[in-house]
Structure formats: structure tokens, C-alpha cells
## 1
Amino acid sequence: MAELRMAPGFSIGHASDPKLASGVTVILADAPATAGVVVQGGAPGTRETDLLNPAKTVQEVDALVLSGGSAFGLDAASGAQGWLRKNDRGFPVGPHRVPIVPAAILFDLNPTASWDRYPPYRELGWEACAAAARADKVKAPALGSVGAGTGATTGTAKGGFGMASTQLPDGVVITAVVAVNAVGSTYVGSTRHFWAAPFEEEGEYGGRGYPHPWPLNATEFMLKGSRRQENTTIGAILTNVALDQASCTQLATMAHDGFARAIYPAHTPFDGDLIFAASSGEVAASPNLPLLVLGALAGNTMARAIARGVYEAEQR
């Protein structure tokens, strides 16, 4: 099975609530990381993503948050921000530190979930940030029905949290992380063969390949039906190669090709499909690795991460 390697300069932490059937995933940067974002779906839920426009003043982030909980889940960023401030992280403003924590949510509200005054996502954000700080830099994070992928679903199966990585010469690493909660399906028609089959490495999502014979219903829409509004796939491309904010934004744009390669249909009016891209800048940019190549590989890696998230959720 293909090695799961985190891009140097980042770590992942999860917090899950079985009663809510929801959770939070935090991507923690070791040091402020340059970041961009691109939204391609019609129903996004976000916090502080305007800061990531290359025309804006702020260029770097301390963490990125992926959360369940629909709009309630945006509060997870407050918890992550609190943890970062407690640990003296953030943009200096006089005697204060203001952590920069953009966030995105998916819609996984459980009809039986309830709380008193405030939803629990702020506490889950704190816990996920603390877990990221404790994370083993070598061992991959848990995949499947964990963190932001805890309550995720797709049109034909459970969704989940997925990850894949691509290693390039000169120590460059591209890592894709994603919480898959699509209105569409990652499977070809009514089979259990993944649309992302051509991009699979070392049997990382079952080695099933494309179906044979090709199913007659391959291009039918396998959607969530009455729960069609409960969607959104959110993720991030992480790399250690030095990129400016405009290049991060372009990287996120090209990584969206991975959504289209792995989910049918993708970027619908019912999905808030979003990808962050972040660079730790630990490896100098090289003319031998143009953004065209980096972006194309980011799309492939994201497609693999999506299929891996669903595959791992299947196994639970």
C-alpha cells in the first residue's frame, strides 16, 4: 500500500464526537504557512477565507480547520484559535497574538444531535489542535470515519477522511487531505469500483481497477436523494516547496481536478466544494518543478485521497 507521508511542516489532528456523529480535523502548521483557497461548489460554509486572496494583506496561516456541523461547525476555528493563542502562536498585535485560522465546514447534521447553549465544535477544535501538536510526524493520521469525516456520506456509501501523498525529487512532498461528504458518488455506477481507479498506487483503495464489463448505469447520477442538501467535500493540498500566495491559489485550482476525477458529479449547487493549499516553504522552488507539474500532481493526489477516505470508511 502506498506510503502516507505528511508534507514536512504540517501535522494533522482529529477530534470526534460519536453522539453527534460529527467531528473536526485541524491542519497545524509548524510555523506560519503561506496559503490560498479556491471554492468551486455552490453551497460553501467558510471562515476567514477572504484573507487568503492574494490581493489581501495577510499571506500566512497558523492552522486550517475542516469541520462537520454545517454553520455550527465554524465555531471549531474559535477553539483552534484559542489553543494557538494559549501556545503563543499568532499574528502579533501589540501585547496580543491573533492566530490566523481559516476554516470550512461540511453538512452532516444528525437529526438526533442536541446541545444546550452552544454547540460543541469549539471544544472539538481545541482538542483537534492539541491532537495535531501531539501527532507523530512519521505515522499517518487515522483515516475513514474520524475527525471531519466522522459523519460524512456520499451518494452511494459512507464518506470519510482521506489522505494521499506524492514524493518528488529534491525532497518535495505533496500531501492531499480531504473530508468526503459529496452529493455524488465515488463509485462507477452501481459497482464498488472507484472513479479514481487510474490514479491508485499500490492498492491503496483496494486495487479494484475499473469495472469489466463497463456498467450500463455508469453515467447515471447516484445522488443522496431526499438528503441532497447535506453535502460538501472539503480538503487541502499541503507541500513543503516554497510558493507565494498566488501560486498556492493556482495549486488549489488545479487540485480541484481531483474532485472531478474521483466524484461524479462534483462541484454541484448542493456541494460547497473547497480546497485550501498551503506551503511550509522548507524546500526552495526549482525551475525543474514548474507549477504546471506541481498542480497536475496535486489533482492526482487529491483524487487518490478522496477514494482512500471512502475506502477506509467502508472497512469500519
## 2
Amino acid sequence: MDEMQKVIIIGGGIAGKLAARVLSEFYNEVIILERDHETKRPIARKGAPQGLHLHALLFAGQYGLEELFPGITEDFYNSGAVRINSTKELAWFHHGVWKLRYDGNFTTTLQTRPQLEWKITQYIKNFSNITIHYNQTVKNFLYNPDENRMTGVEIMDGSGRKTTLEAALVVDASGAGSLSSSWLKKQGLHIPEEKVKIDLTYVSQLVQLNENQSRDWSIKMVYPNPPKEKIGGTLSKVEGNRHIVTISGYHNVINDQEVLKNHNGMLNLARRLPKPDIYDELRDAAPLTKPAIYRIPHIIWRRMDKVKKLPDGLLLLGDTLCRIDPVFGQGMSIAILEALALRKLLRKQKTLGQKWTAVFYKHAAKIIAPIWNMVITEDFRFPDTIGKKPMGLSLQQWYAKQIFLLSSQNQRIYHSFVKVMNLIQPMTILMYPKIIGAVLKRALFK
């Protein structure tokens, strides 16, 4: 690979920075173009409104981030992030039962999204060939039709001045509403999309809980039991001895305007959860921020792996490629797994030639497919969900429900489920003979 080549990355969020970290090993210059202004401390960005809501790295994401940025996990803790025993300090009410609590020898890090992103940014600054240009909006692509190749971008800065930047590779990590998707369609390229309408509403708030010596959890999750229940909530400890509460509802069941205009809007919303635990905690809590709203009408997977004659020199990553249902907390971890797959691919790029981006989409699809299927299997438990249903949906839902229920009484099964949920083991481990036997026994003798 020509080391004098330049990369432009559209979007300075987590996916963009992960891409920059990987590509800095293979390209001489990596430029991140970010629409927001530079922040001097960990605060939510206008361009990432989801940053005000609860985020967590799954095990696969946590391990992968440490691989890309050695030492960052300990740095999180030194900056106030909360280290918890993943299965002992999590209280999880799921499909009508409380899951077992035990020492599974797993660690989860609890912190706010701004704190996480801030730390990644500080690590990025240690790479001399990566620069971040703030207040930059990409208006168009530079394209050579004769070679079917991207050659750069046209950008506009905060003052309205337009310039062009040339590059050997353009990475779009700007999110679900990216420029590249509409641009490709204008070129006559059909991008197959898997799209599922979920009409999800998120409401979050930072709070200060009263001291309670009997509180034996660091994160409490109360999930709905569909199809009748549509609202779930999580209360999680984060840095600064604070907690963040996030309540989510499918299919517009939450009237967000009512929440915002009513002084007790968040409390009233918590009262609607399947269990009163979070409501009881919030009754005496002191709000530290106003409630924040985030809406996701649909989730989408752009099947770039199925498109022929894609322009060379264009790469989609993160939510630009696939925006998943955030209730399951997998988005950031998927982006990290994609970055690791990109790194592995580029290390053998010489054998792939110029069409390596098409090969990457094949690898990304292998990462996304099982997670997408797992997520929509749950989303389709709500009758109002609209989209293409996976084959064997009813059987998958039935089997998954048995696993969920057995996780309240069978530690071996719950331990396996934890590994699958955290993307460190494939779904197939839940099909081992002993687990199938336990599922059938429960179904026959419950």
C-alpha cells in the first residue's frame, strides 16, 4: 500500500475515531471532519443527541476498545467510571422474571457517553498522523466516473467558506442520515435496505439518588414483557456518584411532550414500568438535568455487501452502515468489531487489490447478521412492528423466551446467554444439547 495516501473520515463520533485509529496504521495522513465544535470537557455534542442517554460497552466492545487503545479501560476507572461485577451487581427483570445474580467473573464499565467519547478523543490525539477538523460540513463527494472512484470531498466550514479535499479513501461514519446513502442512489446504484419500523422513544435524565446502604445493585433494568407491555427502563450508576435513568417505549407509547412539560413527567413515566423499583428510587431523587428525548422511528441495515460496482475509495462504518435498536446496547460494540475487522483486512490488503472495500462489507455483514437477527426477533414481539420478518420467527421467539425464563433459575444457561448477549460467543452455544434438553423439559413440565 502507498504510505503517502490520505484518508478522509466524515464524522468525528466514536465510529469515526475508531476508523481513524485503525487507518492510521496504514495511511500516512488521516483527517477527521466533524460538524460540531471542539469541546474542552466531556459534554454531549449537538451532533450526537443520543449522547445524553444511557450507553454501555458490551464485553466484546470493551475488550476490542482496550486492544485498539491499550490502557484506556484503567483510564476510565481513574476518571471515575464505575467498575462492576457484571452478573452480581446487575438486577435485571426480563420477560416477567428476575434473572439470577451470581459472580460470573465478568466486569462491566459504567459511565456516560460523553465521558467515554472524551477519553477516546484524548487517545486519538496521541497519533501524530490523525487530525480532527471541527466545524466542517461535507456537502458533496469528489468522484472520477471514468475510474468509478471517490477522490475526495467538498466541505464547508462554519463561516460558509467552501473548499475541496482530495483523498485516496473516504470513510463515512456520520450516522444513519449520511450523505453517502443519498449520493449513491443519485448515481443510480440500488442499495438494498433491511428496515424495521419500531417507533422507539428514549427519555433520559441524570439524577442524584439518596444514600441507601441496602442498595445491592449498580445497574437495574426493568424490561417490558411484550406484546402487552411496551415500556422498559434502566437506572445505572455513572461517574461522579450520579445515576442516569433511561426509559424507553416502543411504537409511540410515550408522549414525550407530556414528559417535558410536566414537572413530574419522568416520575410519572417510571410509574408505568412493569415493576416499581425504578419509580421507588426516583421518588426521592434529585434531578441533575432536564429530561432528554431521542426518537428512532426505524432501524436500518444498508446491505452494501450486496451492491455491485460500488465506487472504489468509499467505506461506510458504524450507524452509517447499520443502525441497530439501541435498547440492546450493541451499537458501539458493533462499531468496534467492524474496526477490528477492518484492521485485520488491511493487514493482508496486498493480496486483495483495489476492491478491498467490497471485501470489508462481506466481513461486516458476518458481524451484523446474527446481531440484527437477534434484535429483530425481539422487536417483532410487538404487533405494530413493521418490516421483513426472519424465517422461523415464531420458533426463534419461543426458544429465546425459554432461555430468558430459564435464566432466572439455571446459572449455566444464564451464563451462556450473557456471553451471547455480550457478543463474545455465537448464538449457537445456546443450542448445545444440555440447553436444548432444559428448554424442552421446561416446555413439557412447566
## 3
Amino acid sequence: MIKDIKMIVMDLDDTLLNDELQISDYTKKVISNAQKKGIVIVLASGRPTLSMLKYAQELNLAENNGYIISYNGAVLIECSTGKELATTPLTMENMEFVTKIARDNKLFIQTYVDNCVVTDKENQYTSFEGKLTGIPIKLIDDIKDAMTKEVVKIILMEDPIYLKEVENKLKPIVGDSMMMNISKPFFLEFTNRAVDKDKTVTNLCSLLNIEKESVMAIGDSFNDLSMIKGCGFGVVMSNGHDEVKKHAKHITHCNNTDGVATAINRFALAV
């Protein structure tokens, strides 16, 4: 069954990337076939922009009018020019509030400044982030010293069970003052209230004059949920969260068996 797909937006970790953090050669070929058909390819991740660039290069997004959505939607990059088309940081009030949450709940905290991951305590979760993204880690005495200007994202980190308890406690307090999402089970991410992947996809569709019904969104986790629900054809990986799967139009194979390529072939290319 082929859809009239004009744009494909895909998450990176546990979606496009396998467990070795690589895009398989087969998936690259399928994405190249979609680009030849004129389909716009967009990478949409909670990752910092810097850690997404190598994957954009592997997929030749600059040569094929592709885009990067980073920090869960806070930044939109046009790959052909490297230009930031949109940036939406947290407010200083938001930043102070999240810092207080970290202190009151004894959570680790990190943010991103000058292409570094910044934290005020060594911890396994920030070490994981450094290995995952390849971005240097900067350890400072007080996280507030790193946030003298607005940042686009702050992450609170701890054991997944405890972190989920904190998230549930915070929901009525945070309300709509910020966007709050769990990405990895041990990452509770905070961005500006105007930020999520789907809102940035909507913005990009408006710029390119593409109907949202013609967009395929592929992801696995809660920070992908808005675009999976909001785009015309939402696809969830078989390794994705069960709650996210409930909102999918289709469940594809897992990230280690070319699930992204399978969905593109079946629904965008009719292969």
C-alpha cells in the first residue's frame, strides 16, 4: 500500500540507528531512493545539533534539500546552507525552576553550552550522553554558572523508576509552562513550552508548502509521540514503547533489522 509521502521525519536513537549507533548500508540505499523520488528527509532527535551532523552527511542531506530538527524541536537546520531557520530556548525563569527541581529531588542535571555537555557532578548518565553523542563533557562547580544565557534544553537524570515518579509528581506543577518528556528512560528533558518535534515539523511543512497528511513520522519513544500523532502517517518501531505504539498507523521492524527502511519501502516507495 503506497501513500503520497512527500516528507519523511525520523528519530535517530533506537529508530534510524541500530544499537551500534550506525545507519545500515541497506537503509542508506532506501533513503537515497526516497530522495531520488523527491521526498524530503528530516532527522528529528533530542540530540544536540552537533551530534546529528555526521548522520546528515552520511545521508547526503545537504545535497538533497534535507533538514535537521535537534533538541526535540528547539532548533531547525537547513542542511543545504547550514542555516538555523528557528531556535526556541528556555526562558531564564524556566531554567531557574528546573535547577530547583534538580536540587529538591536530588537529580543529576546537564545542559548544552558551546558544543559541550555541561554538568556539575560526575554521573553515569552524562557519561552515557558523552559516549552517545561524541560531544565533550565539561564539569563545573555550579550548573548555574553555565546558564548565564538562555539554553535550549536541560536534562534531569536518575534511575528510571525514580525518574518516572518525579515526572508524575511534576506534571501538575509544570503544566504548560514547559515541555517535559522522557526520552531515554533515565533522561527527563525540558524545553520551551513552544517546542516539540511535531510543532517544528508543522513549521517546516509551512515553509515548504507540504501538507502534514503527506508526512511520514517514524520514532520509538515519548518525545516522538507528538509527531507520530500529528503527521499523516505515524510509524513506531517494534522496539518502541508500548504506549507510543498505541498511536501508530503501523508498527515496523526494530532498529536492528532495518525497520525504517522497511516502512519507507512499503508505504512511500511501494517496493
